[in-house]
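dumping this here before i forget
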Amino acid sequence: MARNIAVLVGSLRQASWTRKVANAMIELAPPALAFQVLEIGQLPLYNQDLDTATPPGEWQAFRDRARPMDGVLFATPEYNRSVPGVLKNAIDIGSRPPGKSVWAGKPAGVVSVTPGALGAFGANHHLRQMLVFLDMPALQQPEMYIPAANKLFDASGALASDATKQLFTRFITTFAAWVERNHRPS
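structure:
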């Protein structure tokens, strides 16, 4: 039985390097994983005053889609040495109200992406700090700091090198085993 994996892409731009990396990972994944990209750009900013018995419809729909997932793959660019606000907002919406987090116990994988040289190291580690609090066991190895993302794809959008394809395949295959080992039935 395939495990259902939510994919949260921290970049809203449709042609972003982060989205391309996430899509490449999805394509290389073993059949043990079934992916669902949860779009986050439409989510209103979290405001506890609105988190009543009838929260905003976009929040409830997002929570309802995330809750049954067996794991989460986070793909994030780095903005100002951290995750983009839109990704933090989605994480906050899913973690509220207290005691009803849709994230608790779900195994996670983190991929950070940048056209720069450091592989979005700051964003990767800020996200991992959040995952500890959210009770999401995060895959430790292989680490996925993706630098020079603007050079990974050819003109058709395919991965340009076999070495990159092998790295992505190793990560997503290891992630599948991580999810299976750490999955907690709902």
